[in-house]
Amino acid sequence: MLNKLKKIAKALLAITWIRRVYETVNRIFLEVFGGSRVLTHLVYFVSFITFNREQAAVLRGRRNYYRNKNRERITHVELRRNIHRLEKGLIMRPRRDVFARDYITETIEFYEQAAEQCRTAPGTMDQSEMDWAHDVLTEYFRVSASGDDAVDAARARFDSAEYDAEPTGKIPYVKQQLSDIDYDAFEALVTQRRSVRWYEEREIPRELIDKALLLARQAPSACNRLPYEFRIFDSPEMVRTVSDIPFGTAGYGHNIPAVAVVVGKLESYFSPRDRHAVYVDGSLAAMQFMLGLETMGLSSSVINWPDFEPLERKMQKTLGLDLTDRVVMLIAFGYAHPEGMVPHSKKKELDTFRRYN
Q: Is 143 within 8 Å of 95 (Cβ atoms)?
């Protein structure tokens, strides 16, 4: 028995020594190569595989952006972007008599392509998106002064586009105070929302999920692209398959009744400068989705998604994702078990994360 304890002690000492050596070498490496952008470039030039998936996704996303412009699509992201740019011009104070000269021709080209799809393949495009584009363009040309060649030519093309639509009022308006929720009520809601990992075995009505998604889409989105999808799984077999892929569900994955995979769409962008927007916009929408669930008696928990190649490949295959589709996070949700507990998760004090000026 004594000899066995000695062997265990030696093994523990060896493990401790190895860990200390690793940490020492690792810190030296990071101090040397992490202090210079040139040396950092050399590191990732050698270990290029580290970010290869993201780099390939960004490049292919840009490729698909241009490919998609000539395809029938339910939503035209390039049209959405430019129409929102016009909206921002319309609300400027003071508003210029003529604006958007540099992109109005391009916008009309996008509009004509969408109108052609609506005419030749009815029902294949989001009708509300097209109505919004038509309304905003109508308002833009109404307030834009005549005499500018680019604007006048675009106006003529807009008038001749074969798209008949009645105005739906989807134009800029004065902000309204629609909610009577005060600070204390909202504080109670966000405090009530905790990461729940224990759920009742109850079916979740899809109409409730859809209502939460309608709130999610109201989250801010750069140029109103909404570059994400919510892949919802509520069949037990698929829920277990999907929720078992990330690292963070050990011990409770079997108890998850439904899971949403928030997927960012890099094909929404033509420039690598916007490569992080899918994570920002997807996260904003995810938070509103979870708060929406909470108002209807449903609880949730974010499942962290690591950028780890084996898991990326597995999720891509399981969900049939394109390389340009980037998983932002997973969200487990359902009816909280009445006896299930949640971590206290003490938050930082205000002075530790707030700075003025």
A: yes
The DSSP 8-state label assigned to residue 96 in this structure reads P
Q: Which of 37-51, 169-183, 237-251, 272-286 has the lowest average pLDDT?
A: 37-51
Helices (H), 144-276: 149-160, 183-192, 206-216, 236-243
* Tokens matching residue 220: 């801010």
Q: Which of helix, strand or coil describes residue 76? A: coil
CA distance 114 to 108: 10
CA angle 118, 122, 123 (to 5 degrees): 110
- Decide: helix, strand or coil at residue 79: helix
Residue bearing tokens 């600070």: 183
Of 136, 138, 115, the residue nearest 127 (C-alpha): 115
Please indicate whether residue 43 or residue 252 has the higher confidence score (pLDDT). 252
- Cβ-contact 298, 207 below 8 angstroms: no
User: DSSP secondary-structure letter at 336?
Assistant: B
The H-assigned helical ranges of 255-308 are 277-295
- Pseudo-torsion of CA 321, 326, 330, 331, nearest 10°? -100
Gap between the Cα atoms of 318 and 313, Å rounded: 9
In angstroms, the CA 54 to CA 64 distance is 15
161: helix, strand or coil = coil
- 29 sits in the region (left: phi over 0; alpha: psi -120 to 50; else beta) called alpha
Q: What is the pLDDT of residue 97?
A: 93
pTM over 0.85: yes
Q: For the chain, how are helix, strand and coil distributed in percent, rounded to 5?
A: 55, 10, 35
- Angle made by CA atoms 106, 279, 281, in degrees to the nearest 5: 60
Grade residue 7 by pLDDT with cuts at 50, 70 and 90. Answer: confident
Residue-wise pLDDT tens digits, 68-78: 998 999 999 99
